Amino acid sequence: MRVPKGVVVLLSALNFHGIGTQAAWQVWLQLPANYPTPRIEHPPLRIIRSRKPEAFTLGVETHRIAGHAVRITDPDRTIVDCFRHRGAVTLEVCLEALRERLRNRRQSLPSLQSYARELGAWRVMKPYLEALA
What we know:
By secondary structure, the protein is an alpha+beta fold. It has 6 helices and 5 strands; from the N terminus they run βαββββααααα.
């Protein structure tokens, strides 16, 4: 609510969707590159910046939380984002989320491939998808 252009991503989105075992002790929020950093004391924020306009629409769902609309990336887009930002979330988190998603929803494979190609993560994800699929 306080950051209308923000999208909940990465570990916070994984937690929301119940994927993986990593707890997010910060709210991971994606903002446009030129958007000012919000001054919010609680909850703690971890800001990820993006210049791509499609990063704020592609695979972004609106959910009602405590009566408020919150924009959160869908599960497949979240996993692709984890691979894009694997330096921030670690490769272990990426692989755990990918394994769990493929184990529970095999039909996610085309969606994962599509998001990875559109967001520029295909080259990184392809070997892992081939090994796990």
